Amino acid sequence: MTSYGCRAMLEEQAIQILQFDCTMMGGFTEGRKLTGLCELNHVQVAPHHDCFIHAHIVASSPAGCMVEAFTDPERDPLQAELYEDPPEIRQGILHLKQTPGLGLTLSKSALAKYGQQII
């Protein structure tokens, strides 16, 4: 789905909850724009996948509803390896870091294993 498709569903009042994935469509900035549209249209936001990125969008918006988390290494091995010291999920609550930005540091071992240098 594109942000244009999401906007069409919002304008047609076809949904009550929008579930988008920043990692697949336009990044964090695009997700924040979609969240703004949801706020204007009284639609809740519950992004799909990568809870460590999407939690910031949900936490910063009155339209934020929940984040979806797949932290089981069997289901998503990359997610389990991607960040050094990721935020903790305790009793179903994701506790965001207090460091600047998203508070995430990519794991050097994951970068070596999966990364590709772009010149």
How much is the radius of gyration in Å? 15 Å
Q: Could you tell me the strand content as a percent range?
A: 5-15%
Number of strands: 6
Specify the CATH homologous superfamily: Enolase-like C-terminal domain
Overall helicity: 25-40%
Residue stretches low in confidence (pLDDT < 50, at least 5 long) are: none
Give me the secondary-structure category: alpha+beta
Q: What characteristic shape results from the CA principal axes?
A: globular
Give the name of the CATH architecture. Alpha-Beta Barrel
Compact overview of the structure:
With 119 residues, the protein is α+β, with helices and mostly antiparallel strands. It contains five helices and six strands; from the N terminus they run αβαβααββββα. Strand 4 and strand 5 (93-95) form a beta hairpin.
Structural commentary:
With 119 residues, the chain is of the alpha+beta class. It has a single domain (3-114), classed as TIM Barrel. It has five helices and six strands. It has helices at residues 3-11, 27-40, 51-59, 77-82, 108-114; strands spanning 17-18, 44-45, 83-84, 88-90, 93-95, 105-106. It has a two-stranded parallel sheet. A two-stranded antiparallel sheet has the order 3-6. It has a two-stranded antiparallel sheet with strand order 4-5. A hairpin with a 2-residue loop joins strand 4 and strand 5 (93-95).
